[in-house]
């Protein structure tokens, strides 16, 4: 335990907000603007009832390291484990999702349960997916008796639709209306793209996905600037299925062990299927997009020749109001939709 404590900086910092947040969020951040953690009451997003258990005390870095020590665990690099030491960051994640009493929330990689703790205090029913058997056992023991279900599985390989459908069915209101869930998670940086690809097409289950990601990855996912070297198929994917928003930058000093990069909170508001861009086939649309970017430096009339002839592609580009010499980084999501519908046969 002593060695773990000696590994942690005595103060934690929270950098400036990169985009606008709610007045409540500014209040919480002001408490850490000096670079040190200050004890403050946990803000609950829903009214408590007489049947609710008393709110749990917020975690700090001492309690997090104590929890790790209880299982004799050190963070495993192979699992991308970086544990959150600042309760204020967890509050920001929960506030970004507007979690309230009765919400159903999926958490990925709960670790020692510091974020789970805030979700429970907010009145949520939590499904936590944890790959590490030791951490899964810790969270299961810690929240025994609470509305927390822990599954020891690899999230990137589990059937999350099946798990969530069962919970949603059991939690559906008596009026017969369907309910949706939210995702709030501090995920390992090394699986962020896999998680985004798995979750964003699930607008029929989740209304919002709030993730703590590596800052550079967060910026790449949200910024879809054309003619950028970072413009990739994932940008088309993210905007096809969601409305992304960069919320807050989070300093690397808030994690144990401290990563080499900062993090950021990103909110994805998921679209319903009826709101997806109208393409004849989603599968063929993304197949075309991926093919276009496989030859990123090539003109589309060359990289898409396996779909139809160069003259046909040039004609489609002109019909879509684009130059015949267009390259993939010059097309918006809407441009790709138009091009697909012109050149891909049903």
UniProtKB/TrEMBL annotation:
Pfam families reported in the protein's UniProt record: RrnaAD
Stretches assigned to the Ribosomal RNA adenine methylase transferase N-terminal domain: 89-272
Residue numbers binding S-adenosyl-L-methionine: 82, 84, 109, 130, 154, 186
The protein's Enzyme Commission number: 2.1.1.-
Region feature (Disordered): 1-24
InterPro entries linked: KsgA/Erm, rRNA_Ade_diMease-like_C, rRNA_Ade_Mease_Trfase_CS, rRNA_Ade_methylase_Trfase_N, rRNA_adenine_dimethylase, SAM-dependent_MTases_sf
Enzyme class label: transferase
Coiled coil feature spans: none
Keywords, sorted A to Z: Methyltransferase, RNA-binding, rRNA processing, S-adenosyl-L-methionine, Transferase
Protein name, per record: rRNA adenine N(6)-methyltransferase
Species of origin: Handroanthus impetiginosus
């Amino acid at each position: 335990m002593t060695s773990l404590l000696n590994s942690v900086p005595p103060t934690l910092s929270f950098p400036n907000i990169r985009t606008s947040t709610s007045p409540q969020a500014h209040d919480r951040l002001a408490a850490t603007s000096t670079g040190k953690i200050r004890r403050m009451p946990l803000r609950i997003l829903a009214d408590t009832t007489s049947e609710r258990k008393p709110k749990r005390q917020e975690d700090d870095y001492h309690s997090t390291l104590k929890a790790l020590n209880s299982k004799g665990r050190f963070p495993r690099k192979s699992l991308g484990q970086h544990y959150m030491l600042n309760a204020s960051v967890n509050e920001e994640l929960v506030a970004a999702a507007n979690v309230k009493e009765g919400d159903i929330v999926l958490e990925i990689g709960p670790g020692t349960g510091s974020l789970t703790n805030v979700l429970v205090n907010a009145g949520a029913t939590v499904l936590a997916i944890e790959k590490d058997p030791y951490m899964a056992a810790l969270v299961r023991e810690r929240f025994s008796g609470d509305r927390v279900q822990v599954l020891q599985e690899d999230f990137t390989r589990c059937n999350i639709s099946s798990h969530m459908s069962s919970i949603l069915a059991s939690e559906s209101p008596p009026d017969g209306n369907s309910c949706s869930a939210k995702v709030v998670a501090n995920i390992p940086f090394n699986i962020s793209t896999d998680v985004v690809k798995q979750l964003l097409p699930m607008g029929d289950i989740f209304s919002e996905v709030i993730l703590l990601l590596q800052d550079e990855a967060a910026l790449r996912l949200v910024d879809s600037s054309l003619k950028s070297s970072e413009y990739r198929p994932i940008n088309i994917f993210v905007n096809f299925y969601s409305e992304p928003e960069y919320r807050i930058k989070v300093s690397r000093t808030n994690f144990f062990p401290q990563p080499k990069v900062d993090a950021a909170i990103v909110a994805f508001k998921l679209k319903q299927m009826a709101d997806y861009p109208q393409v004849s086939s989603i599968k063929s649309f993304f197949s075309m997009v991926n093919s276009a970017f496989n030859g990123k430096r090539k003109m589309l009339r060359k990289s898409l020749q396996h779909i139809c002839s160069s003259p046909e592609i040039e004609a489609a580009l002109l019909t879509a109001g684009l130059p015949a010499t267009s390259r993939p980084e010059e097309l918006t999501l809407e441009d790709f939709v138009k091009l697909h519908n012109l050149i891909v046969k049903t």
